[in-house]
# Entry
Amino acid sequence: MERVGMIVLLCTGVAAGMPAALAQTGKYPERPIRLISPFPPGGTVDVNARLLAPAVSKSIGQQIVVDNRAGASGIIGTAEAARAKPDGYTLILNTTPMVTNTLMYAKVPYNVLTDFEAISILTTTPSFLSVHPSVPARSVRELLQLAKSRPGALNYAGAGVGTNPHIAGELFNYLGKVNVQAVQFKGGGPALIAAISGEVGSRSRALPARWASCSPAACARSG
# Structure
């Protein structure tokens, strides 16, 4: 089981900007704080942001407003945070794609090393493997057997290129020597809904109906 950390970060230059702001006002925060979630509702980043916001709001006496800015595997929301005024009133909750995007794309509209100031590692989130009931596999061994018998015919739901589910899926492919195809969604919430509903299989190379009633070994023999 893989555990992925989430980190809360301040917007660009805030470490330098906050002392001046505090010197002028003597109090922080004086107004609501914006917390950017760079993924859509329903995923782990968004859920953690909405769990965090009420407790911190009560503690500091100012509302923390969660702002979903989803798209491009978190790049849109991360770039929005990087462009924000460095006054401590814009935060972002992010995870692995904040770094992996800089490796997956030739250029991203922010510098992960210089445009943000880390506050804290907030949570670790376990990753787990599950299948739709129509997939005739009830263990990792059976799923590997099925995937090997039909290279490229199985799909898995990803939360975007370079996101945690995508990396975990490709690691599964690499270690298992199989070829399960990624179907990318705009975030973990939509990916989960698609997996539960069976939409992942219907989008590309759906499983043949006869597979729903046979074991992996029998499916391999039946072709």
